[in-house]
Structure formats: C-alpha cells, structure tokens
Specification:
The protein is of the alpha/beta class. It has 39 helices and 28 strands. Strands 15, 16, 17, 18, 19, 20, 23 and 24 form an 8-stranded mixed β-sheet that branches. The protein has a 6-stranded mixed β-sheet with strand order 6-7-8-3-9-10, sandwiched between helices. About 6% of the residues have low confidence.
C-alpha cells in the first residue's frame, strides 16, 4: 500500500521560496483507478513525480508497503522506479532512434532480464495493448494513439505495482482518448493507477476515485481510505537473524538496476546512426589528430626500419671485438695526452726534447693486457639473453686457412694471399698487418672470410643469383658486387687470372721500366664459377720429418703438389650479390666459408703427428731438435761452460759417439748383405746366419756393393714414411730386393739414428731461438674452448648497449686478472647516433602531444553537444529506473564509438596517404625509406583514440548524470 504523510515540496527561486505542495496526506489502495484533478500550477505533476521517485519531497514521508523512504539513497529510488513504478506521459516520451520493441524492452534490460525472456515479455506487453504487429516500427512511423499504447506497454512490461499517467490523453483525439482510458481501466483491476488530468469528464467516467488539489493542498477526496476500519493486529515480528539480513541484502542487490555496457553501446549506436553525416564529420574531425600521428609514425617507422637495416648491416661488419691481447685505444690516447700536459712545466727560454716515443712504449705496455677468453667464452655460452641481442657470436682461432688451387703448371696459394707481396707492393710484415685489419672489419688482403652464422641476416643482405648457400664445411660461396662484377685483385688471387704476370711489377714500375697490365674485361658464366675447386691444407702437412727434426717443405714443389693433392676439396656452390637496399655486407671477402670449415681444420691440426710430438715434448723445438731456452737451463749452461774443458769427459764423449757410429755401420752393412761385417750388438749368431741366408749366396757381393752405394745417398725419412717417389731407380731396386726382416732392421736403424741425432741436438748446449707457444702458433694449433678472438655482432645499437652491460656484469663478477677489454669500432665511429635518434624521438613526441590535446578538447565539446541533444532521453531513462551511473555509461559508450570510428578512419586514410608519400620520397631521394604503419601501431592508435575520447567525454557524461530527470523530461 502507498501512503503519503504530510508531504511538502518547496522550490527555491532566487531569494524566494515557492511551496508546490503544502502538507499532502493521501493513502492509496493496492488496486484502484485514482484521478487527480486541479487547475494548472496546483501541484498535480509535482505530486505525481514525488510518488514516482523522480522528485524528492522537502518534508513528510512517503511509505511504500509500510516502509519509509526517508532514508532512501539514489540506488533505492532507481530500483523503486524500475520495479514498482510505470510511467505514461502526455508526450509519450519514446526514444525516437529505437524501435517499438526496443523501447518496451529497455526497462527490462535495466532489471537484468535475459535476452530471450526480455523479448518474450515485451512482445506480450505489446500484444496486450494491440500492437503485436508493429514491433519493428520506429515511433515516428506511428500515430499518437499507437505511441501512447507503446508507452503503456513499456510501463507494464516490468509488471509494476503502480502505474502513473500524466495527462495520457492530453495529445489525443476524443476517440483515441476513450480507447486509452478503457485500456487503463482494465489494467486498474490488478494495479494501482494514479492519473493526472484536466478532463473531469473522463475522470468521472473511468476513475474509481477522484482527488482534487488546489494551491498544493487536497481539497476533496471522493473515496478516501476508511480510517475507521480496524486493521487486524499483526503479531510482532521476530528480530531478524544474520541469515535473514544476508538474504535481505542479497535481495536488495538483486533488485538494483544496472545497464550493461553493450546496451549503452546499442543506444548510442542507434542514436549516432540517426545522424550519419554529422557522426562521420565528427569522426573525421577527431581523426585528423590520429592521421597526423599515424603519418609521423609511418615515416618514422620507415626511417627506423632503414636505420635498423643500416645498424644491422654495419654491426655485421664492425662487431664488438675481444682479442687475447688487447689495448684500449681510447685509454692510450687519454693517458698520452695527460702525460704530455703534465710534462710541459718548464720555461720557454730554451728548446726541450719531448719523450714521445718513451711515453708511447710505456703507455702501450701499461694498457696492453691479456684476456682470458676461455673463461669468458664459457660465460657467453651460458648466457641465455645473448641470443636475442646478437646476430651471431663468432669465435676465431689462430689456425690458418691454407687454400691452394691446382693447375697443369703446379699449385698456387690463394689464401692467405701473397699477391701484393709478390707484386712488391708491401713486405710480409705489412701483409700480416693488413690481414689483421681485415679481421677487424677493415680492408684486408685475403679474399677468403668466414661467413656470419645467421642465414636470415645473409638473406637480407644478399641475393643468391646462382646455386645455393653452403650447407657443408667444404662448401663456399663467391660474392660479386651489385653490378655482377669481381675485382681483378680477386681474380688474380683466386688464380682465374695469371698472378705471375704481376710479379715484381711495382718494383719494376718504380724503376722506370715499361710495364703492361691486363685491362681486358673478362666474362665468366655462372657455371664456370660454380665449377671452381680449391684444396684446403692443414699447416702441419707442410712439414716432413728428417733426421729427427721436422723440416718446412713449402719450397719443395713436388712435395707441395702431393700435399695439395691430398688436401680437402673445397667447392663453390653459390654466387651471392649484395641486395640493393643493403647498406653494408657481413662477408668482407670474395669467398665466404662456414665456421665449421675452421673447426674441421682445428681437428686436423690437433690430430697431426708433428703437433702431437710437440705437445709430448714441450721442452724441445720439433723444428730444430734444440731445447727451448728457459731461465733455468740458461743458468746451467753458463755454469757448465766453465768446466767443459775436462779432457776425460771429452774423450768419453767421443768414445761413446764412436761406439754408436760403429754399431750403426754394422747394421747398415748387414742390411746391404755384407757377410764380412761383425754381428751387431743385440743380435744372436743364429739370427745373423738366418738373415744372411735370406739374401742368397750367389748375389751377395753384388747386392752388398749396390746396397752400400744406394744407402749412401738415400732419403732415409722417405723409407720411414713409406714414400718411395723420391728414390732413384737403383734405390727402388735395392729396396725391392730386401726381405721383410731386412726392411724392419733398416727402419729400426733409421729410428735409432734419428733418435741419436735428436738426442745429440738436444744436448749440444745450443738452444732454440723460438719457444713452445710460437711453435704451436706456427703449426696453427688451437683449442675450440679457447678462441684467439671473439666477435660479437649485436642486432642493433640498443642491443649493443645491453651486450656491453653483460660484459660489464662479467667484469664485476671476476677478479682483476680475468677482466675483459674489448674494442667497440662502431662506438668509436658512430658515437653521436644515439643522441640524433633521441632528438628525432623528442620532436615526434612533441607533435603527438599537440595533436592529442587538440583532439581531446574537440571530442569533449562534441560529447557535451550530444548531452544537450539527448537531454529528454536522459529523463526517459531515469524515469524507467536508470541510475546516474547508467546515464554516464550511455555517453561513455558514445565517446567509445566516436573514438573507434575516428581511429579506424584515421588509420585507413593514413594508409592511403602513404602511397603518394612513398612516391614522393622515391622521387626526391635514393635512400630506400618506405613509409608504413605497423599493424601493432595501428591497433595502438585506435586504442589511444578510444581512450582519449573516453577521457574527453568523462566530464560531459558526469554533467548528463547529474541532470534533474523532471527538468530533462520537460526538454523538447
């Protein structure tokens, strides 16, 4: 039951107060048709708005089912209007951009009713008022009576307890008014209907009770609730338990109204669709800022992609290099400059010498250090972050890549190249320095270089114009320039042109001789270049053991032919050409080989006989047989030299040598078949007789003469190695005549002689001028775990800085002796690039900030205009139970839609504009910059547009939420 107790309502207008209601007290039955009559301004509509919860009373109390509303909050009034009240207005107050069905469903959406149930109940309500066939029409397509029926269906759909009608027939003709009143009368059988009207005839005909108001007071009530009826005494209610309170709280929460964001989007979308042209223009205006930002980002992205490519290409040629022995160039220069400044502290009355050379040598010694690369390599291998920061980490070794080519005229060394030295252009020392420069990213003399182990980067930098990329250790590629040309230096170095024609040409030119150089342009087919074959020969294969020591055989042409023939064949399997857009190249030479070719050679060197022998005898020089000089044996030599004149020791030494020589001669005679020789030491008489019998009595003398002559000039080491190619025909015939026992005896004799020679050299009192480390380096010995240098190729400059941080972290974690010194060539050359990139970024940020501010202000203004236009809709939504938060959500949804359309429109226009922009850039410059908007940036820009419009619409949406629903309903 609804009850009003002394309701008063005052309005403050300026300095005066107007009383609209002056102590109205009315009790209503649960179901009756009550008409409130009175002249205009008597307070009829104000009373109706207070009953409906749209307006608040100043004093008194409104009881709903015995519950006071004095403590009602906004959410309670919203729930009350949505679940207990249904409004029917004189001007219908339908939302014009919604269909009939959507207008009726709207109240149910605030109640949280499911979509299927919502539609079912809305259709039923419309059928109840006779509009079951008008579901999808818009309000402006219907008559006044039909629109009022829609309003009644909307009021009934939520099954309210009370129906409030404010002049429901005021805008209708007589016939339609009668139909509406008949409909209301039928509804009053089950519900309380309170109608405000100026038509007393209709009120008298259809109402069951008439209340008259005048000047804010009730002056007549035709059928007041009988106060004399004694209500049955109710038993006192029990104190509610915790469970009861929890259930009541849950029920109140369930009754709270809430509009979903999807409903708000639907309302705003339909509203915006009624103004398509304005919405499109508004979105376009909002997209201008997005277009500006998108174009800046597209050009910036194109520039950044180009910079990234330049960085990647540059860093692939100039890595962070860490060598075993290094010196900080910057520190050396700083130290020398400081020392020079400190030394200039004398008067200027005389000329003084400057100790520049001494300072340079001292500084170089102080700043040069040896890096522990074995430990640092393990640290890098264990670092999981390094893979994402680098294109490759390349480990180089002291093992020399010796490459030869074979021809009818002999073999030619193609790597390391000796072309410039043969020309007389520079010395071998300068050649070595140039090779080191090539390994550091400069221009070296070698045309062979190790490829970076990053196929993706190689694919970006090069086009495969013939063949394929190498897949095995013995496969290489030939690199031509962008014009498909090969430098003639490369052609001479690879033997494609005769290098002998250039021998001494520089010296002869400087001496004034007339010289000619082949200037003809030679043409090679792809197939001819892909047929190129080379031979890789490990350094130990250049040496041959003779008389207990290893001799360098590079000067022996026949030996080198065989060594090269036995080498590993290297095939050219592909031809690469630099990509047109590549600013740099990672392959510094004309021939690129894989890293596993070097690891293969390292294994070959490590397993060679000479290297094994040197490792087994670290104190003896395998090239000379002499001991290496150390501090200890030098002291021993000095001491023994004072007593070396002892004649007894000298005599005994000579006797030992004579005895050894005699025994060797006996064995040599025995091998030659000389039966007159005494039995050598260590051989029994039976063994001697058996050996002599094998040679045969008939030709013993002949063989003896031939054997002694043959052995006199025989290459004994050839027999030890099984190589008979260097022997004469007589020597080969003699060797063929020997029995197996005689051959074994000969090899034993040669080994003993070799050991004796080696022992004599080792104890001769002389010392090798080399040392163990130099010998191992000469042989190309390396350990995979201990590289000679490490080249780290960062992906970009940002990654380079992170890699430097990783190196710094390593240095912080180890002792002083293990700290790493590195050379950053790119950092030395391009130290200002970071500041340039930052400056560009700051400029772009400034542009973005200005565009965003302008866009935000504009969107805020547009949203506020929309609030003014939709004021009546705000009142309608509030009358059916929408909360202030729901109203804010409606306009927030509108700003989201406008922001999304503006962002999407801006991106589409920006994509279209990049086409002419790229054409202009291509016309004005040769730099391969292509403006493009990244997909991620496009998504982010649309999101930013939505967020900005949402933020800009917060203030207008709050203004909308605070609007008085009574005033809003009066707005046209």
């Amino acid at each position: 039951m609804l009850s009003l107790k002394d309701i008063k309502k005052d309005y403050v207008v300026g300095d005066s107060t107007v009383s609209a209601l002056k102590g109205v007290s009315i009790d209503f039955r649960e179901n009756e048709f009550v008409s409130i009559l009175g002249p205009s301004g008597c307070g009829k509509t104000t009373l109706l708005n207070i009953i409906g919860g749209l307006d608040r009373y100043t004093s008194g109390d409104l009881n709903i089912n015995g519950k006071s509303t004095k403590d009602f909050k906004d959410c309670d009034w919203d729930s009350y209007r949505n679940h207990s009240i249904g409004f029917v207005f004189q001007s219908y107050n339908l939302i014009p951009h919604q269909t009939v069905l959507s207008n009726v469903e709207l109240a149910l959406t605030l109640s949280g009713v499911s979509k299927s149930e919502r539609r079912e109940r809305a259709v039923k309500a419309l059928e109840q008022v006779g509009l079951g066939d008008q579901l999808h029409k818009k309000p402006n397509q219907m008559s006044g009576g039909q629109m009022q029926r829609v309003a009644i269906a909307r009021a009934l759909v939520n099954e309210p307890d009370i129906l409030l009608a404010d002049e429901p027939t005021g805008a209708l003709d007589t016939e339609t008014s009668v139909q509406i009143m008949e409909l209301l009368k039928s509804i009053s059988k089950d519900k309380l209907i309170i109608m405000v009207t100026h038509n007393p005839e209709l009120a008298m005909k259809y109402s069951s009770r008439i209340i008259k108001l005048l000047d804010g007071k009730v002056i007549d009530d035709s059928d007041p609730l009988d106060k004399n009826v004694v209500e049955p005494i109710k038993k006192p209610e029990k104190e509610p338990t915790k469970a009861d309170k929890k259930a009541a709280k849950k029920e109140r929460k369930k009754l709270k109204t809430s509009m979903s964001f999807l409903t708000a989007l639907s309302l705003s979308r339909n509203n915006l669709m009624t103004k398509k042209a304005r919405t499109l223009l508004t979105s376009f205006a909002g997209s201008i800022g997005i277009i500006g930002i998108a174009l800046i980002l597209s050009i910036s992205n194109g520039v950044q992609l180009y910079i990234d490519q330049v960085q990647s290409d540059t860093l692939s040629s100039y890595p962070l290099q860490i060598t075993k022995t290094t010196a900080s160039i910057g520190e050396i220069m700083n130290t020398m400059a400081k020392n020079h400044e400190d030394s200039a502290n004398h008067d200027k009355d005389k000329v003084y010498s400057q100790n520049a050379m001494g300072e340079m040598i001292n500084t170089l010694m102080e700043e040069t250090k040896v890096n522990n690369l074995e430990k640092f390599k393990k640290y890098l291998d264990d670092n999981s972050d390094l893979k994402d920061l680098t294109s490759d980490v390349q480990y180089t070794y002291a093992t020399t890549l010796n490459v030869f080519t074979e021809s009818d005229s002999g073999v030619m060394q193609v790597n390391p190249s000796t072309l410039l030295e043969d020309m007389g252009y520079m010395s071998s020392t300068q050649m070595e320095a140039m090779s080191m420069s090539g390994s550091m990213g400069g221009m070296g003399t070698d045309v062979w270089s190790e490829m970076i182990d990053n196929e993706e980067l190689i694919d970006k930098q090069y086009d495969v114009i013939a063949g394929r990329l190498p897949e095995k250790y013995n496969e290489v590629v030939l690199v031509v320039d962008k014009n498909n040309e090969i430098n003639d230096y490369v052609l001479y170095s690879l033997g494609l042109l005769d290098p002998s024609s250039l021998n001494g040409i520089v010296r002869r030119a400087m001496a004034g001789e007339d010289i000619s150089v082949d200037s003809e342009q030679h043409v090679y087919t792809y197939d001819e270049l892909l047929d190129l074959k080379f031979k890789a020969v490990p350094t130990p294969d250049f040496y041959k053991k003779k008389d207990g020591v290893w001799e360098d055989m590079t000067g022996d042409e026949s030996y080198m032919k065989k060594a090269v023939a036995n080498g590993t064949e290297i095939s050219v399997v592909g031809i690469l050409r630099p990509d047109e857009d590549a600013s740099s190249a990672s392959i510094s030479g004309a021939i690129g080989y894989r890293h596993d070719l070097m690891t293969y050679l390292i294994d070959e060197v490590d397993n060679s006989e000479i290297v094994k022998e040197q490792i087994a005898n670290p104190d003896i020089d395998v090239f000379t047989g002499l001991k290496f000089k150390t501090d200890e044996n030098v002291a021993d030599t000095d001491s023994s030299s004072e007593t070396v004149s002892d004649s007894t020791a000298d005599t005994e030494s000579k006797a030992d040598k004579t005895a050894d020589s005699s025994d060797t001669d006996k064995k040599a005679g025995l091998v030659a078949g000389d039966s007159s020789m005494e039995i050598p030491e260590g051989m029994t008489e039976e063994q001697y007789k058996a050996l002599m019998e094998q040679s045969g009595a008939s030709n013993t003398g002949e063989l003896a003469d031939m054997g002694m002559n043959a052995m006199g000039s025989m290459d004994m080491s050839a027999i030890q190695g099984g190589d008979m190619s260097s022997l004469t025909e007589t020597q080969k015939k003699y060797i063929a005549s020997l029995s197996d026992e005689q051959m074994e005896l000969m090899k034993q004799m040669l080994k003993e002689q070799s050991d004796t020679n080696a022992d004599q050299l080792a104890n001769s009192g002389k010392y090798s001028t080399s040392n163990y480390d130099n010998n191992m380096k000469t042989l190309g010995y390396s350990v995979v775990e201990d590289p000679d240098s490490i080249n780290i190729y960062p992906v970009d400059f940002a990654s380079k800085e992170k890699i430097i941080d990783i190196i710094d972290d390593y240095n912080d974690s180890v002792g002083e002796e293990d700290k790493i010194e590195y050379t950053d060539y790119v950092g030395l050359m391009m130290s200002s690039i970071t500041s340039i990139i930052n400056a560009i970024s700051y400029v772009l940020i400034a542009f973005v900030a200005i565009s965003l501010v302008v866009s935000s202000i504009m969107i805020g203004i547009i949203t506020y205009i929309s609030v003014l236009e939709r004021t009546k809709e705000i009142g309608i939504l509030r009358s059916i139970g929408a909360s202030k938060r729901d109203i804010s959500r409606v306009f927030n949804a509108e700003t989201v839609i406008v922001g999304f359309v503006a962002g999407a429109l801006g991106i589409i226009i920006s994509y279209l504009l990049t086409i002419p922009i790229n054409m202009i850039i291509a016309h004005l410059t040769d730099v391969p910059i292509r403006a493009s908007i990244p997909v991620s940036a496009a998504v982010v820009l649309i999101a930013i547009s939505v967020c900005l419009t949402l933020i800009a619409g917060l203030f207008p949406s709050r203004v909308a939420a605070k609007k008085d629903p009574v005033i809003a309903l009066r707005t046209e």
